[in-house]
Amino acid sequence: MNPDLKKLLDIQGFDKQIAELEQELRRIQQKEERIIGVVETKLSQMNDVKEEIEELNKDLQFKEELLKDTLENLNKLEVKLNSVTTEKQMQAVNTEIDIAKTNKTVLEEKIESLKEQIEQKRKGLRELEDRYEQLKKTLRDYQDRFAKRREEIHNKINEINSLKEELLPTIDKKILKKYEKINRWAKGTAIVPVMKDACYGCFMKLTPQVLALLEDTDEIVYCPNCGRMLYLEEPSE
Ligand SMILES: [Zn+2]
Q1: Is the pLDDT confidence value at 19 over 50?
Q2: What is the 3-class SS of 211-236, one letter each residue?
């Protein structure tokens, strides 16, 4: 094989490794964003429940004040009942007392129900808070792992890049330019093997002349159809 082509094949291999590592970085990023999204959703659910509890508490306070007023009114009416002189007055006060008692019962029931609702909501909130803490811990664990892996990946990419930088100046400039030009559209497949007498880039059958060039010379051979650089796979040992 042409020695420059052999080096370019290494370069292509390095680029492929870098592309895979960069893809892994993106996957890590996406996974991290997904977990952060779940944590944020939990937080916003917690805030919603807190607001609901606040609303219920306001309603509870309002009804408790109403109940207090109703009880005071009831006391006053009972005092008043003792001081009435006529049957008619007594009837009127008794009617008022009945109404106040009904109000009292209704309010007490509502207050009881509100307290139960608040208790339920608080229970739900505690569960959400527990889950939120767990999720935050999971996120921290993942972030630790992700940070380590990111560092490993960046080190590996740097390592590959220095190998590349060592190799690049040793390659014939014209051939390197040609390779880069093909790679702009071929994206990682600028150099392809010949498989079953066909270009492994475009799968076009190669002519016996092209195959003979590959077999018998050290020249760089281009696929007449797609223009990629071709090489014969060395027989494996
Ligand atoms: Zn081709």
Answers
A1: yes
A2: HHHHHHCCCCEECCCCCCEEECCCCC
